[in-house]
Amino acid sequence: MGNITLGRYIPMDSVIHKADPRAKICAMLAFLIAVFFPAGWIGYGILFAAACTAIITAKLSFSFIWKAMKPMLMMLMFLFVINAFFLKTGTLLFEIGFFSLYSDAVFQTLYIAVRLLLMVMITTCLTATTKPLDMTLGIEDLLKPFAKIGVPAHEIAMLISIALRFIPDLIDETQRIIKAQESRGVDLKEGKLMEKIMAILSLIVPLFVSAFQRAEDLANAMEARGYAPGEPRTRYKILKMQARDYILLLIANLLLAAMIWLSFRS
Prior knowledge:
mainly alpha, 2 strands, single chain
């Protein structure tokens, strides 16, 4: 659980940290759209270089990004097994008895793994360099045009911000409960399947109770401070785009245009 880094803000003094949250969110969306274009390995190499540049510029460590990727390794292994058994196209790599592995099964798994890695890198970079309050303001401003058709922009932005903020809190609470259970003799790693299921249930129940208690405390705190959904609100902090923000948007859109061109070329 400690490997999950999504939602954790890392305070640093970098250009990415100082950038407008609206520019970072739009740049992330452009990057994510670019990832889904079949631009080939050259295109993904360009996107990987751009993501690494953003991480270095934000002064984040690659070990921090790797922690966000580690929980997904099991899913990728399961995907590889499924592809190995059911995808029988391409060059035959080897055959053992009834099992045969083809090149398309390997390349398809690598293709998905690279896409997933790129998405994790850029989303983790966004959440690690943007304060939850700034994220709320940025999402709200981006959703404001949809308010004319009845979309509650502020409420949606608040929900997203709270959800991201609660991820590290729930992870810390889970680790605390695990340590408390282990001190009472509960072993979550050893034992038979039914024993592991019962041990996990002993973890889930107090976690849900704690999550609901945190939600109730947050609701009471917001109500005590006069928060009323749907009512007009003033802001202490006003977002203003600067030259670096427009440069960030330009780079992200150039990457998207390059991926579109490479996909049509291939």
